[in-house]
Write a structure and sequence with these properties.
single chain; alpha+beta; Aminopeptidase; 7-stranded mixed sheet; two-stranded antiparallel ribbon
């Protein structure tokens, strides 16, 4: 039995109308009975040729209960499953926004100036095919919600190479700071994991020398 099959009896999705006809909100509830609201997924169907589709995940519950056990949502099978399903449905030039305050490690590294792709959440999104990232650490106006990552899939091979070139510069430039932070008593473990992710990203990018990775 797959994780999704084990989860389905406890998972309930409520669809609500959005602000306009191309938008819909999906509230995910998890647990017996009515359950607790796990998160909200806002989907925008796009307005071709003017606006591309996008998806936003917000109001994420930091902990979930599955099979009688409470576990952090960050790093869980459920998080990977949900983001994987959303990534599959987004194409080139389309964006995913996700509030990251439920993820203490990602929040901490972003506050320190780490490139989003080197954080725990950003690296997961990179592995799912997103190549352009932006940290909306100070949303514009209360209607924009909390701090969030925006990531986008490339619309063309030219865009992919441009995104990867920028990503390489950002990650390589922050490696010395991650090396320094890895010796910090409070941040060492998080920085060391980010350093491993940075090395993995650089190894995956074209034109990276062994000196840049080490």
């Amino acid at each position: 039995m797959t994780f999704l099959e084990r989860l389905q009896p406890q998972l309930r999705v409520v669809k609500r109308r959005g602000r306009f006809r191309e938008e819909a909100n999906y509230e995910l509830y998890l647990g017996p009975g009515a359950g607790a609201r796990l998160l909200v997924v806002k989907c925008f169907a796009g307005r071709p040729p003017y606006y591309a589709r996008w998806v936003e995940v917000f109001a994420v519950l930091p902990e979930v209960e599955v099979g009688g056990r409470r576990t952090p949502f960050a790093g869980s099978e459920l998080e990977a499953l949900l983001l994987g399903l959303l990534a599959e449905r987004l194409g080139g030039g389309e964006s995913l926004f996700i509030e990251y305050t439920y993820d203490a490690e990602t929040s901490k590294l972003l506050r320190l100036g780490a490139p989003p792709a080197a954080t725990r959440l950003g690296f997961l999104l990179f592995q799912l095919g997103f190549t352009w990232f932006k940290d909306w650490y100070f949303p514009e106006g209360f209607m924009e919600g909390g701090p969030k990552l925006q990531c986008e899939k490339p619309a063309s091979e030219e865009a992919r190479l441009r995104h990867l070139s920028r990503l390489k510069e950002e990650v390589a430039a922050f490696v010395p700071e991650l090396v320094r932070l890895s010796g910090d008593a409070k941040l060492g473990a998080e920085a060391a994991r980010a350093l491993d992710r940075a090395a993995a990203i650089l190894r995956a990018l074209p034109g990276t020398s062994s000196r840049e990775v080490s």
